[in-house]
Amino acid sequence: MAQRGPLIVYALGVATLYGALASQGCGIDDPSSAGGGITPGGDGSAGTSGAAGTVGVGGGAGVTGVGGTFSLDGSSKDGLTKDVNCGSSSVQAEKVELDAYYVIDTSGSMHQPSGNGAGDCNVGQTVNSKWCNSINALYGFFSEPSSVGMGAALGTFGGSSCSPVSNPVIGLAPLPTHLAGMEAGLNQASPNGQTPTEAAVRGIIQYTLANKQPNRKMIGVLITDGDPTQCNTNIGALNQLLVDHYNNNDIATYVIGMSGASFGKLEGLGVNAGAQPHTNYCGGSISPCSFYNVGNGDKTVFVDALKEIQENALGCEFAVPTDEAGMTDTNKVNVKFTRGDGSEVTLVRVDGEANCVPDAWYYDDPTNPTKIQLCTDTCTSVSADLSGKIDILLGCETVTPN
Prior knowledge:
The chain is built from eight helices and 19 strands. By secondary structure, the protein is an alpha/beta fold. It folds into two domains: 7-28 and 72-93 and 319-329 and 337-370, no CATH class; 97-314, 3-Layer(aba) Sandwich (Rossmann fold), CATH 3.40.50. Strands 1-19-15-16-17-18-14 form a seven-stranded mixed sheet. It has a six-stranded mixed sheet with strand order 10-9-8-11-12-13, with helices on both faces. It has a four-stranded mixed sheet with strand order 2-4-5-3, with no helix packed on it. Helix 2 (130-142) packs across helix 7 (299-314), helix 4 runs parallel beside helix 5 (235-249) and helix 5 (235-249) runs parallel beside helix 6 (263-270).
């Protein structure tokens, strides 16, 4: 079973920590070279100094260090503070929700290993086939607590038609209210025919682009047990369609392969199409890989792979938060990563993905941003630290590369 990434904490306005204030130019002198723990501060008199050295600007929350303390004038809301030096305030960030179009292979080989025509089933039934395993795994994933609030649509591809699968069996709607519809759609479908992968690829591109919504993350998920047999079968050409879709529209496509599909062609289809390279659920000698191998569709493995895709799609993207007045100064937003060992780093903002440096993030749109995105290498580091956490801070000037 795959391990999960770090805790994402939407704690905003917590820039009263010295390290965050000092690094963001908020005018706080170092109270002590050997810092202590964070403790509530009493009402202090402005400018009072003691034998150990005290810097004060009124009363409020204080940070204690060895040899002295400083206090920050501010008001409390929900346990966080407002810092007059930076103008930071506590607000609640909104998690970016996921929408996904799942397109599943209904070619005749999905009946295997039960044999042609013998592998069909409804959700909840047990038949030894890749098809039955797949629909039970998908329904199990849709029923998971982690899927609450996620939008899901279901499409199928099989037979000989090359027409894009852009009219889903079940259209996009949120879970769990959409769960009964998804079950009906899975029960309605049945394996038959060939593998026109081009129809699935073009259908994912058309449907996800047409249904992409502001402040939500849209992805496509293609599930197949075989190599393309109909229409355009050139893996490089099909992959280029998905790569262009990702680069032009910021919509990733994830490829799930089952027994019968060639690992090399699965990798060729999924590479650079938006999935972060990973080492879980790879196949053959390909590792890291850009696809997810679930074999015959064991439910535990399949559901876990779907969860990993869900986390991969959302783990490094956050909605741009607003303050109590519903406003955001996008030049006063910072992202802090606290590692599992307790060390902290304030990530720097760059102008876009092409300008990424270590420990960096960028806005999805520099002029009208709606999302905060971590750079790929930063995302990999953050996701690998299972005890780490992300804080989004408002109020201090954004830290940029020197």
